[in-house]
Give the backbone structure.
Amino acid sequence: MDKLIAETKEYFINNIQQTEDKYGLLEHVPEVVKWVKKIREYYPKSDLEVVLFGAWLHDVSHYLVNDGEDHAVKSEEMSREFLSGKIDKDTIDRVCHCVRSHRCKDVAPETLEAKVLACADSASHMSGIIYMDMLSNGHRVATVDEKLERDYRDIFIFPEVKELLTPIYKLWKSMLLEYQKLNLPKGE
Ligand SMILES: [Fe+2]
Ligand SMILES: [Fe+2]
């Protein structure tokens, strides 16, 4: 199975390397994997392989969808196609549920593995550079704040993660406040 996980990682990297990777997914997904491992320290019964397949596949279609399309839907399709014939159907279904529900939007994460991935996805934003990246790329402070709030809400799936990240959430909140005060002109 380790070999297939390595192949899945490669499949993700190859797909993203064909793009400009404007959202930094090549940094984001390894950050998600860190959180998967961290959350599993509290929930060791979650199936590591299912969550790892989900982690490497959940954003694979990010740059392939059109406006209005949901990358969770397209990534699920691509995951099924990629894994088909390589592992049993039940495992594929479990991975696909993780991928489909990772945004906690129209489909809620129901299994422990899907909850681990959804929480790891949001937690990764708080330990990564995405908020700063969004600001330097011209997003409004209010937009970044909304994202931070959604991420903070979604890590509530696991109280342990909420406790770990609440101090960092508060620091991001003050950072956004201070950044707003800078009132930086456009860099063009
Ligand atoms: Fe995503
Ligand atoms: Fe993600």
In short: The mean pLDDT is 96. The pocket of fe (ii) ion (ligand 1) is lined by residues 58-59, 71, 102-103 (CB under 6 Å). The CA atoms of residues 39 and 116 lie 7 Å apart.
